[in-house]
Amino acid sequence: MSFIRNHGGVFHGGPTTDHHLPSKRKLEDSGSLVDDSSDSNDLISDLVSVRMRKDEGGAVNSWSPVRTPLSPLSETQSQRSLSIWPHLQFFVRMMSEGNTMVMHAFPEDSVKSIHQRIQHIKGIPIHEQRLIYMGKQLQFEQTLAECSIQNDASLQLVGRMRSTEHPQAWQVMNDMISVVYRMCRGESLPNALKTVKGLIDSYLNMTPRDSDSALGYFQIFMSCSAPAVLVMLYLSPFTGNKDCADSSVRHFVNSCRSTLSEELHSQFALVVLEFCKLLRRLHCDDPLYMFCRSTLGSLLETDCVCCGTTKEDVKGLILVQDIFPFVRELANSLLSDLDLSLESPTYAGHLYSDVRDLRAFLVPLRSGISVQQSLMVSATDEERHTDAMLTEEIENLHFLYIELLSKMDECLKKVDSSLADQEITEWDTPYNAWSQYLSILKELHQISKLYDGAEEELWNVLTRQRSAVCQLIVRYAKRNDEHHWILERKCVTNFESRRHLALLMLPEVKDDYEELHEMLIDRSQLLAESFEYIGRVEPESLRGGLFMEFKNEEATGPGVLREWFFLVCQEIFNPQNALFVACPNDKRRFFPNPASKVDPLHLEYFRFSGRVIALALMHRVHVGVVLDRVFFQQLAGNEITLEDIRDADPHLYSSYKQILEMDPGFIDSDSLGLTFVREVEELGHREVVELCPGGKNVIVHSVRICQRLW
After folding, report:
1. Counting CB atoms within 10 angstroms of each CB, which of 73, 550, 643, 657 has the fewest?
2. Rounded to whole angstroms, how far apart are CA atoms 524 and 552?
3. Residue 55 predicted with pLDDT over 60
4. What is the b/e burial string over 94-119, where b = at least 16 CB atoms within 10 angstroms of the residue's CB?
5. DSSP letters along 183-196, please?
6. Cβ-proximal residues to 238 (8 Å cutoff; 6+ apart), any chain
7. What is the C-alpha to C-alpha distance for residues 569 and 580, in angstroms, rounded to an integer?
8. Count of CB atoms within 10 A of residue 637's CB?
9. What torsion do the CA atoms of 271, 274, 279, 280 make, to the nearest 10 degrees?
10. pLDDT over 90, % of the chain
11. How far apart are CA 516 and CA 512, in angstroms?
12. SS3 sequence, 351-375?
């Protein structure tokens, strides 16, 4: 006797004896008697026969166990029945009704045969059925084994397509997947690439541009196993299939990047991550894999893609744990590239792309580790013991840092020894590998901030290899690069390298003649007219270069421009113009004149002076003027101490120093007669300025003296 047993709402079917097999069953919802003895697949359907009750509207709302009478079989027939007993038992849940049915099948049975049985039982047309397993749709052409269906697996049957969300999107994806499966079977389809790309375009065109509505479309793309199907086509041995898959994947990725808003990039990144995981099984140098990996890295590098550290992190759509394998892979590839660069500095290989991609993947990884470390600081000992999230990634990144730093130490030694007898200006050989060394060091500097003692290890290496570092800066540091970090420690650079980095901070002069800023200046009105041409225009108009001509003179060109820079700087720093004064001990060094306010336009003239100096630097014109260190400190927003004014005003420094070294009791006796005022000389007469309200009546005591006197 064969029957269906109810176990907590789930129905299991199977033979009750070894001597009976079902031959027929009634399907009461269709009112017909179905002969199930025609083939083995129909025989399997007998094993899951059920009696269904209908509601008044004809919809199935429940399942009930039913006993089906069986005809006695001979012993031979019984043995045959055992040999064909299906190896798989799995559950199919109706999403629209909340019911579950049990099915049995062979691993080699097709998904289509399961759909046929569901149509037989439920009456749902095959073209309206969708079987979902582990978040992905099963395709008709696949076998259960190819879908990795295991015993007691749970499948979901999506209802009629017209009642599901985005039915057109499902249909387009199914059409594309059907075309791909036919190609994988070796069918020769005319215009296959055009067809696949056209279906991808149709799918993307119907994808909404706002994040909430587009989420369902990305889920359909993933649920249909579209990435896996395209990768399967890429691995297909038939001629033309690999090229078709390569072009289709690139077309999908590039189209998404160019058409989707940044709000959708997080969802798009999940799809690219899926492509990367599938293609990673190939060699890491596979062109399509490298393309997808670079795309994923560029998406992660932006702020529009969220990454999280735990599965409960709602904002983090991509886990940091998913990112680290790419970091390890790129770091290993980079180590291999650096080994090759030691043998041949002209080696290029994948060094540039590896450095670029590693930098991109490190951005979210460092952020995730920083967040985790901050949480660990405030956690209890018990929480630290139980919370192992990211622990392995944190340790492994530290190991990678140590390996890369050690390798860079070797590379810098090689640079120093190779260029020991060469002048920097004579570097005619394109040392492609060396051009990436500064970028690698910058990433190591970023990682070093995550670990105790790691930053000192880096600076020790750079200090030992100072000569090589300076040569690399002068040769390879570019305007668009960010190398400010290396200025944190003055000991690793020399004057030439620091000057080169400082000049890179200024805007680049454009050589486009149409954008030149033209000036026609009368020598007798040099400062006033130069002020009008430079101080009263928008800064953007000065970045296209300068064209200089003196009135009633025919000479033009770079020589005239250099002469104008020299003459106008002489006027700016002329003491008679009351803008700057020279240091007492060094007449070449200047700082702002405290009496400059006598000119109501003095602030505008200071801005004009800054523009002229910046333009001189941009045009590489040496004007022979040095600003005092105290003024530089003020421009940088740093605190000014007494020691800073030693060179700017040695007499003032000496007076203050003597007061600080006096006996406090002597100062408190008011023997010096000090009050909170200062005397300022302006245009030949001295003026008393109070340092605080009522300062001329406040006596200075020893406890009120501080070192901030400037």
Report:
1. 643
2. 12
3. no
4. beeeebbbbbbbbeebbbbbbbbbbe
5. HHTT---TTHHHHH
6. 183, 184, 186
7. 11
8. 6
9. 130
10. 22
11. 7
12. HHHHHHHHHHHHHHHHHHHHHHHHH
Q: Which of 453, 458, 498, 507 is nearest to 479 (CA)?
A: 507
> What's the farthest any 2 CA atoms get from each other in the chain?
131
Q: Which residues are 355's β-sheet partners? A: none
Amino acid identity, residue 666? F
Decide: residue 9, CB within 10 A, 0-12 exposed, 13-18 middle, 19+ buried: exposed
Q: Is the pLDDT of residue 171 over 80?
A: yes
Residue in 433, 448, 453, 440 with CA at minimum distance from that of residue 408: 440
Q: List Cα–Cα distances, 245 to 192, 233, 280, 325, 681, in angstroms.
A: 10, 6, 16, 25, 82
Structure confidence by residue, pLDDT tens digits, 189-225? 889 999 999 999 999 998 887 767 788 888 888 887 8
Alpha-carbon distance of 368 to 357, in angstroms, equals 18
Q: What is the 3-state secondary structure (H, E, C) of 392-403?
A: HHHHHHHHHHHH
- Least Cα distance to 530 among 484, 563, 492, 555 occurs for 563
Write the CB contacts of 321 (distance below 8 Å, at least 6 apart in sequence): 390, 393
- Amino acid making up residue 299: L
- Whose tokens are 């399961």? That residue is 114
pLDDT of residue 501: 87
Q: In whole angstroms, give the CA distance from residue 331 to residue 688.
A: 66
91 DSSP assignment:
E
Query: Do the Cβ atoms of 562 and 621 come closer than 8 Å?
Result: yes
* Segments in 546-649 forming alpha helices (H): 558-572, 602-618, 629-635
Integer Cα distance of 454 and 118 in angstroms: 63
Going from the C-alpha of 510 to that of each of 383, 391, 545, the distances in angstroms are 58, 50, 6
Cα distance from N-terminal residue to C-terminal residue, the chain: 105
Contact 618, 507 (CB under 8 A): yes
Asked if 278 and 294 touch (Cβ cutoff 8 Å), the reply is no
Q: What is the mean pLDDT of residues 214-238?
A: 87
Closest to 521 (Cα-Cα) out of 560, 557, 554, 548: 548
**DSSP-based helix, strand, coil % in the chain, nearest 5:** 55, 15, 35
| Mean pLDDT value across residues 180-196 | 88
Average pLDDT over residues 372-378: 69
* Residue located via tokens 């052409």: 141
Closest CA to 103 of 61, 137, 131: 131
Residues 54-92: b if buried by 16+ CB within 10 A, e if exposed: eeeeeebeebeebebebeebeeeebeebeeeebebbbbb
Task: For residue 408, give Cα distances in angstroms to 203, 404, 453, 456, 459.
Answer: 47, 6, 18, 15, 12
Q: Are 573 and 590 in contact (CB under 8 A)?
A: yes
Q: Are 573 and 611 in contact (CB under 8 A)?
A: no
What residues contact residue 49 under an 8 Å CB cut-off, 6+ apart? 2, 4, 13, 22, 25, 27, 36, 66, 68
Q: Give, to the nearest 10 degrees, the angle between helix 351-378 and helix 287-301.
A: 40
Are the CB atoms for 551 and 588 separated by under 8 Å?
A: no
Cross-strand pairs, 685: 682
- The letter for the amino acid at 288 is L
Q: Using CA atoms, how far apart are residues 634 and 644, in angstroms rounded to an integer?
A: 11
The Cα–Cα gap between 364 and 361 comes to: 6
3-state secondary structure of 580: strand
Each residue of 105-124: pLDDT tens digit?
A: 988 899 989 988 888 887 78
